[in-house]
Amino acid sequence: DGKFSIFFQGAVSSQNYEREDRFAEETSDTETRDGYNLKGGLSYTIAEDHKIFFNGGYYSRQPFLDGIFSFAGSNADVIKPDVENEIIRSFETGYHYKCDSGFTANFNAYVTDWSNRTISYVDDEYIVDGAEEGVEASVIQRGIRQYHTGAELDFSWTATSAVTLNGFISGGSWVYKGRSSVNVFDVDTQELIDSADGVNRNGVKVSTAPQFTTGLGVIVNVMEGLTVDGGINYRARHYEFTDAGTSAVGYEPATLKPYSTTDLGLTYRFNLGDSNDLTFRANLYNAFDYIGLQNS
What we know:
This protein is mainly beta. The chain is built from no helices and 15 strands. A hairpin with an 8-residue loop joins strand 7 and strand 8. The protein is elongated, with a radius of gyration of 25 Å.
């Protein structure tokens, strides 16, 4: 009866990696990594204005280049043991509402589990147990896992023929889970100089973006072709910087100061005849000149 809609998509990929170190005059063997992704979903129209949906996906992603080759000494050396594919599992469910009065709203909740990640960095003064001096070392962490959950709501309302209101609110909980194994290589010799059973990152907050945001905006049609718009955006629960070396031992999450910014804009559309249009756009970001920290 047209109320159900179902989709499915899958893809397979194969990547070949080869690297030449022109300083060491070495070329690596060709490394091949296979990957794939699967995703699907369904939606159900409850009534003309109401729809619910569910989507899911599974992604086996090949490592990035620095997960295949070492990045110090001879850059043509392949990291051993092999870095396995990252695994991303994601699920989303939501609700869509649209009515004839010009009001639309979307709500969705999601879970994303990003596991088996590999992160590498250089420690300029890595001290091996029993050594008196530190050495420059390449540190490779395998098996890092991020777990994201959250919900989002957005809406748009054409209040009159001249005024449209829109807004959104989004909140989430993004954390690291579990432990990661560590291998440490001497930069000069590429020798494995240390290893550990795992770094406990359980509960460490992901700091790449605010975990709560909300905003409200308005678009006003002043005259034919001319619109002005403005919006205020609020950001909170932005945790202080964490990186590949952050451990849950002794970790106390701290957040940056919440803040809001206001943006303004003007759009004018010229009709040049037939189907030719020219659009002029002017933007004023952070109209009230707020100064704050976006990362720490």
